[in-house]
Amino acid sequence: MSNLFGRNFRVMTFGESHGPALGVVIDGLPAGLRLPLELIQADLDRRRPGLSPYVSPRQEPDEAEILSGLAAEGRTNGAPLALLIRNRDARGRDYETRKFRPGHSDWPYFIKYGLRPQPGGGRSSGRETVARVAAGAVARIMLSPLGLRARAYAVAVGRVKAESPDPDFAETDPLRFADRDLAPRAHQEVETAMSEGDSVGAVVEVRVTGVPAGWGEPVFGKLEAALGGAFFSIGAVRAVEFGEGLAMSAQRGSEANDPLGPEGPITNRHGGIMGGLSTGLPIVARLHVRPTPSIAREQRSVTVDGQPTTISTSGRHDPCLAPRLAPVAEAMALITLADFHLEPNRHYVAINQSVEA
User: Fold this and answer.
1) Are 37 and 66 in contact (CB under 8 A)?
2) Of 15, 166, 177, 305, which is most buried with the most CB atoms under 10 A?
3) CATH number of the domain within which 249 lies
4) What pTM value is reported for the model?
Protein backbone atom coordinates (compact mmCIF):
# COMPACT_ATOMS: atom_id res chain seq x y z
CA MET A 1 0.00 0.00 0.00
CA SER A 2 1.59 3.27 -1.11
CA ASN A 3 1.44 6.10 1.41
CA LEU A 4 4.22 8.28 -0.05
CA PHE A 5 3.92 11.36 -2.28
CA GLY A 6 6.60 13.51 -3.91
CA ARG A 7 10.25 13.31 -4.90
CA ASN A 8 11.78 16.33 -3.15
CA PHE A 9 9.07 17.48 -0.75
CA ARG A 10 8.32 13.93 0.38
CA VAL A 11 5.11 13.31 2.32
CA MET A 12 4.03 10.12 4.08
CA THR A 13 0.69 10.06 5.85
CA PHE A 14 -0.37 7.46 8.41
CA GLY A 15 -3.31 6.54 10.61
CA GLU A 16 -6.92 5.42 10.22
CA SER A 17 -10.29 7.10 10.49
CA HIS A 18 -11.16 5.50 13.84
CA GLY A 19 -7.69 4.70 15.16
CA PRO A 20 -5.93 6.65 17.91
CA ALA A 21 -4.39 9.25 15.61
CA LEU A 22 -3.40 10.32 12.12
CA GLY A 23 -0.29 12.15 11.04
CA VAL A 24 2.29 13.00 8.44
CA VAL A 25 6.06 12.84 8.08
CA ILE A 26 7.62 15.39 5.70
CA ASP A 27 11.14 14.77 4.42
CA GLY A 28 13.13 17.22 2.30
CA LEU A 29 12.37 20.45 4.14
CA PRO A 30 15.30 22.85 4.14
CA ALA A 31 16.74 23.80 7.51
CA GLY A 32 15.95 27.21 8.98
CA LEU A 33 12.32 27.50 7.88
CA ARG A 34 10.21 29.01 10.64
CA LEU A 35 6.96 27.06 11.17
CA PRO A 36 4.45 28.90 13.36
CA LEU A 37 2.11 26.22 14.70
CA GLU A 38 -0.81 28.66 14.58
CA LEU A 39 -0.54 28.88 10.78
CA ILE A 40 -0.68 25.10 10.47
CA GLN A 41 -3.62 25.02 12.86
CA ALA A 42 -5.46 27.68 10.83
CA ASP A 43 -5.53 25.39 7.78
CA LEU A 44 -6.59 22.40 9.87
CA ASP A 45 -9.44 24.43 11.35
CA ARG A 46 -10.78 25.17 7.85
CA ARG A 47 -11.16 21.43 7.23
CA ARG A 48 -12.55 20.42 10.63
CA PRO A 49 -15.85 18.53 10.94
CA GLY A 50 -18.69 19.67 13.17
CA LEU A 51 -18.65 23.34 12.13
CA SER A 52 -22.03 23.54 10.35
CA PRO A 53 -25.14 21.47 9.54
CA TYR A 54 -23.64 20.75 6.11
CA VAL A 55 -20.65 18.72 7.33
CA SER A 56 -20.12 15.66 9.48
CA PRO A 57 -21.16 16.29 13.11
CA ARG A 58 -18.08 14.40 14.33
CA GLN A 59 -16.40 16.60 16.95
CA GLU A 60 -12.67 16.66 16.33
CA PRO A 61 -10.44 19.56 17.46
CA ASP A 62 -7.76 18.42 14.95
CA GLU A 63 -4.98 19.95 17.03
CA ALA A 64 -1.56 19.44 15.49
CA GLU A 65 1.40 18.29 17.57
CA ILE A 66 4.91 18.61 16.14
CA LEU A 67 6.92 15.61 17.27
CA SER A 68 10.24 16.15 15.48
CA GLY A 69 12.07 18.25 12.94
CA LEU A 70 12.22 21.59 14.78
CA ALA A 71 15.21 23.27 16.37
CA ALA A 72 15.27 26.41 18.51
CA GLU A 73 12.81 29.21 17.78
CA GLY A 74 10.48 26.86 15.92
CA ARG A 75 12.71 26.53 12.85
CA THR A 76 13.22 23.35 10.85
CA ASN A 77 16.48 21.51 11.44
CA GLY A 78 16.65 19.64 8.13
CA ALA A 79 15.47 16.37 9.65
CA PRO A 80 12.06 14.81 8.91
CA LEU A 81 9.19 16.85 10.30
CA ALA A 82 6.54 14.72 12.05
CA LEU A 83 3.06 16.04 12.87
CA LEU A 84 0.41 14.16 14.81
CA ILE A 85 -3.37 14.78 14.97
CA ARG A 86 -5.11 12.66 17.61
CA ASN A 87 -8.63 11.31 17.09
CA ARG A 88 -10.83 12.51 19.95
CA ASP A 89 -14.29 11.43 18.76
CA ALA A 90 -13.78 8.09 17.01
CA ARG A 91 -16.80 5.74 17.07
CA GLY A 92 -15.90 2.61 15.13
CA ARG A 93 -18.92 0.81 16.58
CA ASP A 94 -21.17 2.87 14.28
CA TYR A 95 -19.98 0.95 11.22
CA GLU A 96 -21.10 -2.31 9.64
CA THR A 97 -18.09 -4.60 9.17
CA ARG A 98 -19.75 -7.50 7.36
CA LYS A 99 -21.39 -5.60 4.51
CA PHE A 100 -19.75 -3.64 1.73
CA ARG A 101 -20.82 -0.02 1.33
CA PRO A 102 -21.68 0.89 -2.28
CA GLY A 103 -19.42 3.58 -3.71
CA HIS A 104 -16.68 3.00 -1.12
CA SER A 105 -13.38 1.15 -1.39
CA ASP A 106 -14.56 -1.59 0.98
CA TRP A 107 -15.11 -4.17 -1.74
CA PRO A 108 -11.90 -3.62 -3.81
CA TYR A 109 -9.90 -3.48 -0.53
CA PHE A 110 -11.34 -6.89 0.31
CA ILE A 111 -10.35 -8.26 -3.10
CA LYS A 112 -6.82 -6.85 -2.92
CA TYR A 113 -5.91 -7.18 0.76
CA GLY A 114 -8.43 -9.66 2.16
CA LEU A 115 -9.59 -7.06 4.70
CA ARG A 116 -13.26 -6.83 5.58
CA PRO A 117 -14.72 -3.30 5.76
CA GLN A 118 -12.76 -1.15 8.21
CA PRO A 119 -14.56 1.29 10.54
CA GLY A 120 -15.12 4.46 8.55
CA GLY A 121 -13.03 3.12 5.68
CA GLY A 122 -9.74 3.00 7.59
CA ARG A 123 -6.98 4.45 5.40
CA SER A 124 -9.39 5.19 2.55
CA SER A 125 -11.57 7.44 4.69
CA GLY A 126 -11.73 11.16 4.01
CA ARG A 127 -10.43 11.51 7.57
CA GLU A 128 -6.97 10.65 6.18
CA THR A 129 -6.89 14.03 4.44
CA VAL A 130 -6.38 15.85 7.75
CA ALA A 131 -2.73 14.78 7.48
CA ARG A 132 -2.51 16.15 3.93
CA VAL A 133 -3.85 19.51 5.07
CA ALA A 134 -1.16 19.66 7.74
CA ALA A 135 1.50 18.97 5.10
CA GLY A 136 -0.11 21.51 2.77
CA ALA A 137 0.08 24.14 5.51
CA VAL A 138 3.82 23.54 5.80
CA ALA A 139 4.15 23.83 2.01
CA ARG A 140 2.13 27.05 2.10
CA ILE A 141 4.51 28.56 4.66
CA MET A 142 7.54 27.56 2.58
CA LEU A 143 6.11 28.95 -0.69
CA SER A 144 4.60 32.17 0.69
CA PRO A 145 7.84 34.20 0.38
CA LEU A 146 7.67 33.56 -3.37
CA GLY A 147 4.29 35.28 -3.49
CA LEU A 148 2.55 32.00 -4.24
CA ARG A 149 -1.07 31.76 -3.05
CA ALA A 150 -3.63 28.95 -3.34
CA ARG A 151 -7.40 29.18 -2.81
CA ALA A 152 -10.21 26.69 -3.38
CA TYR A 153 -13.96 27.12 -3.26
CA ALA A 154 -17.12 25.52 -4.63
CA VAL A 155 -18.39 26.83 -7.98
CA ALA A 156 -21.20 24.27 -8.14
CA VAL A 157 -23.21 22.41 -5.52
CA GLY A 158 -25.52 19.84 -7.01
CA ARG A 159 -27.41 21.58 -9.82
CA VAL A 160 -26.64 25.10 -8.55
CA LYS A 161 -23.75 26.74 -10.44
CA ALA A 162 -22.04 29.95 -9.37
CA GLU A 163 -22.55 32.79 -11.81
CA SER A 164 -20.41 35.43 -10.10
CA PRO A 165 -17.73 33.54 -8.10
CA ASP A 166 -16.34 35.41 -5.11
CA PRO A 167 -13.62 33.47 -3.24
CA ASP A 168 -13.77 35.91 -0.32
CA PHE A 169 -17.47 35.23 0.17
CA ALA A 170 -16.85 31.49 -0.10
CA GLU A 171 -14.72 31.60 3.06
CA THR A 172 -17.74 32.90 4.99
CA ASP A 173 -20.26 30.42 3.56
CA PRO A 174 -20.83 27.07 5.34
CA LEU A 175 -20.76 25.23 1.98
CA ARG A 176 -17.77 27.29 0.80
CA PHE A 177 -19.98 28.19 -2.16
CA ALA A 178 -18.60 31.18 -4.05
CA ASP A 179 -21.75 33.00 -5.19
CA ARG A 180 -23.42 35.22 -2.60
CA ASP A 181 -26.70 35.57 -4.51
CA LEU A 182 -27.10 31.85 -5.25
CA ALA A 183 -25.86 30.54 -1.89
CA PRO A 184 -29.40 30.12 -0.49
CA ARG A 185 -30.26 27.87 -3.43
CA ALA A 186 -27.10 25.83 -2.86
CA HIS A 187 -28.02 25.45 0.81
CA GLN A 188 -31.52 24.31 -0.15
CA GLU A 189 -30.05 21.76 -2.58
CA VAL A 190 -28.13 20.13 0.24
CA GLU A 191 -30.94 20.38 2.77
CA THR A 192 -33.36 18.65 0.40
CA ALA A 193 -30.93 15.80 -0.16
CA MET A 194 -30.37 15.47 3.60
CA SER A 195 -34.10 15.25 4.24
CA GLU A 196 -34.25 12.36 1.78
CA GLY A 197 -31.28 10.52 3.29
CA ASP A 198 -29.13 11.41 0.28
CA SER A 199 -26.13 13.54 -0.69
CA VAL A 200 -25.05 15.88 -3.50
CA GLY A 201 -21.94 16.36 -5.61
CA ALA A 202 -20.02 19.56 -6.30
CA VAL A 203 -17.36 21.27 -8.38
CA VAL A 204 -14.43 22.77 -6.49
CA GLU A 205 -12.24 25.32 -8.23
CA VAL A 206 -8.58 25.67 -7.23
CA ARG A 207 -6.80 28.91 -8.12
CA VAL A 208 -3.06 29.33 -7.58
CA THR A 209 -1.32 32.64 -8.20
CA GLY A 210 2.35 33.57 -8.08
CA VAL A 211 3.75 30.48 -9.82
CA PRO A 212 6.61 31.66 -12.07
CA ALA A 213 6.63 30.75 -15.75
CA GLY A 214 8.53 27.59 -16.63
CA TRP A 215 7.73 25.20 -13.79
CA GLY A 216 7.13 21.67 -15.05
CA GLU A 217 8.45 19.55 -17.89
CA PRO A 218 7.26 19.32 -21.51
CA VAL A 219 6.91 15.53 -21.82
CA PHE A 220 6.45 13.13 -18.90
CA GLY A 221 6.83 15.65 -16.10
CA LYS A 222 4.00 17.94 -17.16
CA LEU A 223 2.83 20.25 -14.42
CA GLU A 224 -0.85 19.55 -15.08
CA ALA A 225 -0.15 15.80 -14.96
CA ALA A 226 1.47 16.17 -11.54
CA LEU A 227 -1.33 18.39 -10.25
CA GLY A 228 -3.96 16.15 -11.82
CA GLY A 229 -2.47 13.11 -10.11
CA ALA A 230 -2.45 14.97 -6.80
CA PHE A 231 -6.09 16.00 -7.20
CA PHE A 232 -7.16 12.51 -8.27
CA SER A 233 -5.55 11.09 -5.12
CA ILE A 234 -8.42 12.76 -3.23
CA GLY A 235 -10.95 9.96 -2.95
CA ALA A 236 -14.09 11.79 -4.11
CA VAL A 237 -12.60 13.50 -7.18
CA ARG A 238 -13.87 11.95 -10.42
CA ALA A 239 -12.73 14.49 -13.05
CA VAL A 240 -10.24 17.35 -13.27
CA GLU A 241 -10.04 20.12 -15.86
CA PHE A 242 -7.66 23.06 -16.30
CA GLY A 243 -8.72 26.42 -17.67
CA GLU A 244 -11.63 26.03 -20.05
CA GLY A 245 -10.92 22.30 -19.94
CA LEU A 246 -13.80 20.19 -21.17
CA ALA A 247 -15.30 23.06 -23.16
CA MET A 248 -12.26 23.03 -25.46
CA SER A 249 -13.32 19.73 -26.98
CA ALA A 250 -16.16 21.59 -28.72
CA GLN A 251 -14.11 24.65 -29.73
CA ARG A 252 -11.99 25.57 -32.73
CA GLY A 253 -8.31 26.38 -32.38
CA SER A 254 -9.02 30.06 -32.89
CA GLU A 255 -11.29 29.93 -29.86
CA ALA A 256 -9.10 27.79 -27.61
CA ASN A 257 -5.66 29.32 -28.20
CA ASP A 258 -4.17 31.92 -25.85
CA PRO A 259 -2.73 34.78 -27.95
CA LEU A 260 0.77 35.91 -26.95
CA GLY A 261 2.11 39.35 -26.11
CA PRO A 262 5.58 40.53 -25.03
CA GLU A 263 4.91 39.41 -21.44
CA GLY A 264 3.40 36.04 -22.38
CA PRO A 265 -0.18 34.79 -22.86
CA ILE A 266 -2.79 37.55 -23.06
CA THR A 267 -5.70 35.29 -22.09
CA ASN A 268 -5.73 32.31 -19.73
CA ARG A 269 -7.93 29.72 -21.44
CA HIS A 270 -5.39 27.01 -20.63
CA GLY A 271 -5.55 27.72 -16.91
CA GLY A 272 -1.96 28.81 -16.41
CA ILE A 273 -0.30 25.76 -17.97
CA MET A 274 0.66 25.21 -21.63
CA GLY A 275 2.76 22.37 -22.97
CA GLY A 276 3.19 21.01 -19.47
CA LEU A 277 4.81 24.25 -18.24
CA SER A 278 3.46 27.07 -16.10
CA THR A 279 2.87 30.34 -17.96
CA GLY A 280 3.06 32.72 -15.00
CA LEU A 281 -0.70 33.31 -15.13
CA PRO A 282 -2.99 31.91 -12.41
CA ILE A 283 -3.27 28.13 -12.43
CA VAL A 284 -6.98 27.35 -12.48
CA ALA A 285 -8.29 23.80 -12.05
CA ARG A 286 -11.79 22.49 -11.41
CA LEU A 287 -12.36 19.28 -9.50
CA HIS A 288 -15.62 17.43 -10.10
CA VAL A 289 -16.55 15.85 -6.78
CA ARG A 290 -18.93 12.92 -6.47
CA PRO A 291 -21.78 12.84 -3.94
CA THR A 292 -20.83 11.37 -0.59
CA PRO A 293 -21.35 7.59 -0.97
CA SER A 294 -22.30 7.16 2.69
CA ILE A 295 -26.06 7.77 2.65
CA ALA A 296 -28.96 6.74 4.85
CA ARG A 297 -31.06 5.46 1.94
CA GLU A 298 -31.22 1.69 1.60
CA GLN A 299 -28.98 0.29 -1.15
CA ARG A 300 -28.25 -3.15 -2.57
CA SER A 301 -25.01 -4.77 -1.47
CA VAL A 302 -23.38 -8.08 -0.52
CA THR A 303 -21.84 -9.48 2.65
CA VAL A 304 -18.22 -10.52 3.04
CA ASP A 305 -19.51 -14.05 2.40
CA GLY A 306 -20.95 -12.98 -0.96
CA GLN A 307 -24.59 -13.09 0.10
CA PRO A 308 -27.03 -10.49 -1.30
CA THR A 309 -28.17 -7.94 1.27
CA THR A 310 -29.14 -4.32 1.70
CA ILE A 311 -27.38 -1.59 3.64
CA SER A 312 -28.23 1.80 5.04
CA THR A 313 -25.01 3.52 6.06
CA SER A 314 -24.92 4.78 9.63
CA GLY A 315 -22.26 6.94 11.23
CA ARG A 316 -21.51 10.64 10.73
CA HIS A 317 -20.98 11.89 7.20
CA ASP A 318 -20.89 15.02 5.06
CA PRO A 319 -24.00 15.51 2.89
CA CYS A 320 -21.79 17.52 0.51
CA LEU A 321 -18.01 17.19 0.42
CA ALA A 322 -17.22 20.61 -1.06
CA PRO A 323 -16.68 22.70 2.11
CA ARG A 324 -14.11 20.32 3.59
CA LEU A 325 -12.62 19.08 0.33
CA ALA A 326 -11.62 22.61 -0.75
CA PRO A 327 -8.83 22.91 1.88
CA VAL A 328 -7.63 19.43 0.88
CA ALA A 329 -7.46 20.50 -2.78
CA GLU A 330 -5.43 23.55 -1.78
CA ALA A 331 -3.10 21.31 0.22
CA MET A 332 -2.49 18.90 -2.67
CA ALA A 333 -1.76 21.81 -5.02
CA LEU A 334 0.69 23.32 -2.53
CA ILE A 335 2.43 19.99 -1.83
CA THR A 336 2.87 19.40 -5.56
CA LEU A 337 4.22 22.89 -6.18
CA ALA A 338 6.57 22.59 -3.19
CA ASP A 339 7.94 19.47 -4.85
CA PHE A 340 8.60 21.40 -8.08
CA HIS A 341 10.09 24.31 -6.14
CA LEU A 342 12.69 22.02 -4.56
CA GLU A 343 13.52 20.28 -7.88
CA PRO A 344 17.35 20.48 -8.17
CA ASN A 345 17.34 20.46 -12.00
CA ARG A 346 14.64 23.08 -12.53
CA HIS A 347 15.98 25.39 -15.26
CA TYR A 348 14.16 27.92 -17.39
CA VAL A 349 15.00 31.08 -19.34
CA ALA A 350 13.79 34.39 -17.91
CA ILE A 351 10.86 35.78 -19.90
CA ASN A 352 12.73 38.99 -20.77
CA GLN A 353 15.98 37.30 -21.80
CA SER A 354 16.76 37.69 -25.47
CA VAL A 355 16.87 34.49 -27.51
CA GLU A 356 18.85 34.17 -30.71
CA ALA A 357 16.85 33.34 -33.81
Assistant:
1) yes
2) 177
3) 3.60.150.10
4) 0.93
